[in-house]
Amino acid sequence: MRRLLEGLAALVALAVVLGPAPSSTSGSVVAAVPVAPAMPSLVIPDLVRVGLATDLESLTLPCCGTDLRAQAGTTQVALVETFTIAPAARGRRGVYRLQVAALKDEGQARDLAIELNQRHGQPTAVVFDAGTDFYRVRFGRYKTRQEAEDASRALAGAGVLGAFVVSEPSPSLSEGLRVTQGKDSWRVRGRWVAVWSRSDAGVRLPSGHYRGRILVYLNDRGTLNLINELPLEDYLRGVVPKEMGPEEYDNLDGLKAQAVAARSYAVKNFGEFAAEGYDICATPRCQVYGGRSAEHPLTDRAVAETSGQILVYAGAPVDAMYSSTCGGHTEDVSVVFPLKDEPYLRAVPCYEAGLTELAGDVRAGSPFPAALTRRILPPAGAEGSAASLAGRFRQLALAAGLPQPPADPPALDRRSLTRYVADWLDLALEARLFVADEDVSYVLGQAPEGWAREDLHLAAYLAQLGIFDGPVQAAPTAREIEHSLLALATLLQVVEAVEGRFASIADGTLTVRVGATLRQYEIPRRLATFRGRAGALRAAPLALVPGDHVDLYLQSARLVAVAQQVEPSGAAYDRTSRYSSWRRFRSDRQLSELISASHPGFQLADLTILERGSSGRVGRIRLTARNGTSLEIRGLAVRWTLDLPDTLFTAKRLRPSGDRAGWLFTGRGFGHGVGLCQVGAYGMGLRGHHYADILTHYYSGVSLATLETVPRERFEAIAAAF
């Protein structure tokens, strides 16, 4: 079907002829009506079928309510009692098989099945499990469990370990399905049962809440596939938040790019699971789908504002692959998926050229916050003296419109300063109300000898406010005093601290994104600038890229300082991901076990990287066994074989003394690294890029097009006419 449709100028690879599932909430079956095949390009059926689970022995739907309806054959009923669907032939003796592996990589699963068949002369099968996202490799067909167990022992002797016996029912598809509700039971000829809500409530299952209809399909193996049928746009409402969580990635343009990519992927890959009764799966093998339970207002908006939009290349929908984190650079598709070579899936950098500079007037290297606090509260007299600190407190009181503090603190020890500040700001009541005895021990640790209970509560409260929050047993350091002065200035509204992300500088104006809004600040002639890691900021000119974390400090609404938090992972769009860099150690034993899953009996002796792609991703490795044999692994199978987050890695051999030998893998990225980088899309959105620009950055030479939908039955009839 797919090959046929891809060759049609007026249709795209979308249709799947699935048989007469009920097509309306009235329960009537709409027959395929011949129509003229002429129709505009980029037309898709209005409903998509999503595989939620496969090979169920039976399915019991939650009970009850007159709002839920079911159609089984020609019978339509209200679900008012527990409703169970099972193959009519269930209970008949089937066959026993050996499940020898469950693999992530389809190619490895099929290669293993071929190898087992050739080596042992027994039938093998590969079945995708839509519930677990694995390809199950099953071996042999046995009449009794004992025969299967004997075969399992024979396989173990040949190096195929861990096989276990599973039973497969006799298909007997002609007998159809058996439906039971309460005491009533009847047989349904055919393969389909449909359940839906007559309102907008949807259908609730143990796995979640779903819009549209729930379909139960009797597959060729005599077991049940669970399917959700619903409009494409509603399907995307359950995909986008699962693929790119809106709570963490809360940029609308980034989410819009994800919505268009997900829609394009769905359109391109419609019908991939036609033999199983559905169009697309609900796991990472296709796209993660969470149904109505996953929906979120922000991703709903992203889907709605891009409704019907897909990416096309040379007029045809693109296979809009995407992954979580590309590690600074995406990869050519042929490196990761050797059987693909789409021209729009080319390696591109996940960086933006150029930095924005902003220089301050504080002496380079001056520590934060002292360089700032000494500017807004300049010391008077001998620094480090009680009199000098009292003078700065008096400046602070004047700026805040507070009564002047007592003359001078009697000393610069912690208890004296605690009493001094608490007396000045009248904090005794707050400390009693807001600090429990348990808080004191937790915040301060070991209490100094001779401190009164009130002093301890005051010290704990000041520490909670960020004031004199160092070790309680020691006198405050000069650095701690500067931090305390800034905390007091912020608390008393003398200084306003604003946390945001850098957007741009233009015409003497700094623009910062604070939450969902953009704020602009005039850049003064006198400005303090700091940069570095948190807790180690020093005065320096800033080198900014959009999205950088910045802290602004204002006095009377005027900018006085900017502090840039330097991202240790660099300037890449996807730097915010926890997978921007990673390390994994795999012992020789662990690697041998991993490799044996797809290559039974293989005992690793050496590993060699043979090829890398444009991004540096590993495209091919050679594994050498202890007996001298070797095998080559290509593409994404490298990731699954070595159990790594990505294929952008280096491998270092380690032989620690008295410890296990193995390999240290150091890498970047998470996923396959082809097409859209999801965290990178978020980073581009933060930097002000439009979603169309994000998409054309990651997919080379593509453009946006708009879909048109027609009823599914009409679409299938047109496809059949060709």
3D architecture notes:
The chain has 722 residues and is α+β, with helices and mostly antiparallel strands. Among the domains are: 2-87 and 176-318 and 702-717, no CATH class; 95-168, Sporulation related repeat (Alpha-Beta Plaits, 2-Layer Sandwich); 370-459, no CATH class. It is 27% helix and 29% strand. Strands 5-4-13-16-17-2-18 form a seven-stranded mixed sheet. Strands 25-24-23-29-30-26-27 form a seven-stranded mixed sheet, with no helix packed on it. Strands 3-6-11-12 form a four-stranded antiparallel sheet, with no helix packed on it. α4 packs across α5, α5 packs antiparallel against α17 (678-686) and α12 (437-444) packs across α13 (453-464). The chain is elongated, with a radius of gyration of 33 Å. The relative contact order is 0.14.
**Count of helical regions:** 19
Please count the beta strands (DSSP E, at least 2 residues each): 39
The unreliable regions are 1-40
Structural class by secondary-structure content: alpha+beta
Residues in helix, %: 25-40%
**General form:** elongated
Radius of gyration: 33 Å
Q: What fraction strand?
A: 25-35%
Mean pLDDT comes to 86
Short description:
Helices cover 27% and strands 29% of the residues. A hairpin with a 2-residue loop joins strand 19 and strand 20 (316-317). The relative contact order is 0.14.
Layout of secondary structure:
Layout: H1 2-6, E1 43-45, E2 47-56, E3 59-61, E4 68-72, E5 75-78, E6 83-87, E7 95-103, H2 106-120, E8 124-129, E9 134-142, H3 145-157, E10 164-168, E11 177-181, E12 184-188, E13 192-197, E14 203-205, E15 208-210, E16 213-218, E17 224-231, H4 232-243, H5 252-268, E18 280-281, H6 297-305, E19 309-313, E20 316-317, E21 322-323, H7 333-336, E22 356-358, H8 370-376, H9 386-400, H10 414-425, H11 428-434, H12 437-444, H13 453-464, H14 478-491, E23 496-506, E24 509-514, E25 517-522, E26 528-532, E27 538-539, E28 542-544, E29 549-555, E30 558-565, E31 582-587, H15 588-598, E32 604-612, E33 618-625, E34 630-634, H16 637-642, E35 648-654, E36 662-668, E37 676-677, H17 678-686, H18 691-698, E38 703-706, E39 708-710, H19 712-721
Parallel strand pairs: 1-39, 2-18, 21-37, 26-30
Antiparallel strand pairs: 2-17, 3-6, 4-5, 4-13, 6-11, 7-9, 7-10, 8-9, 11-12, 13-16, 14-15, 16-17, 19-20, 19-38, 22-28, 23-24, 23-29, 24-25, 26-27, 29-30, 31-36, 32-33, 33-34, 35-36
Helix pairs in contact: 4-5, 4-6, 5-6, 5-17, 5-18, 8-14, 10-13, 11-13, 12-13
